[in-house]
């Protein structure tokens, strides 16, 4: 189920870039945020001796997630991409981040008090 949800999200992002009506690959830059999203949490889990580190990790993670939603909106407002491409990218973001969240709650939260 997680693989299907992630592949649907990535397919929407590829469609936002590759459809002949849009034909610009700028929305593909949100994929960088998908790789950066779990890093603050993974780093904070290594040294869980203080709550301040967990709060900083959550703040950084939320900043990365919000940036991935803001990038297509800013590109559409600047008329670099079309609004249809922006909406497809936002829908893809929801699918991919739902997959990441389900993975953390399903598999990683058992041995960690981070969440």
From TrEMBL:
<keyword id="KW-0472">Membrane</keyword>
<dbReference type="GO" id="GO:0005768">
    <property type="term" value="C:endosome"/>
</dbReference>
<comment type="similarity">
    <text>Belongs to the OB-RGRP/VPS55 family.</text>
</comment>
<keyword id="KW-1133">Transmembrane helix</keyword>
<protein>
    <recommendedName>
        <fullName>Leptin receptor gene-related protein</fullName>
    </recommendedName>
</protein>
<dbReference type="InterPro" id="IPR007262">
    <property type="entry name" value="Vps55/LEPROT"/>
</dbReference>
<dbReference type="Pfam" id="PF04133">
    <property type="entry name" value="Vps55"/>
</dbReference>
<dbReference type="GO" id="GO:0032511">
    <property type="term" value="P:late endosome to vacuole transport via multivesicular body sorting pathway"/>
</dbReference>
<dbReference type="GO" id="GO:0016020">
    <property type="term" value="C:membrane"/>
</dbReference>
<keyword id="KW-0812">Transmembrane</keyword>
